[in-house]
Amino acid sequence: VQLQASGGGWVQAGGSLRLSCVFSGRPFSVYNIGWFRQAQGKEREFVAAFTWSSDRTTYADSVRGRFAFSRDTAKHTVYLQMNNLKPEDSAAYYCAADPNYYIRFRNPDEYDFWGQGTLVTVSS
User: How confident is the model at residue 30, as a pLDDT?
Assistant: First the structure.
């Protein structure tokens, strides 16, 4: 499977962006899907993940209530809607996928497939 992320950009604090991640290859319905971010000089950080074993999405505490994960099966695309953005949300954002039924979804090392990063910059 290949993942193609897009949608990053520059936005003022309080603004919104929607990231997209297009899947090619096997249907993404059989993958766990995660969003991670990495700020300059920092480790990659969990943002959100959909696990197909539980059929639900989990969010990091720092983004819960502001970010929303969604899927469009017909377009083979997953989205991360980001609202009320803060300067501390600035980072390169990555989508990732893994086919195993059970994974430690907060751990980036669990994911086999990665899209390229898309940069989000939030100014104060």
Answer: 77
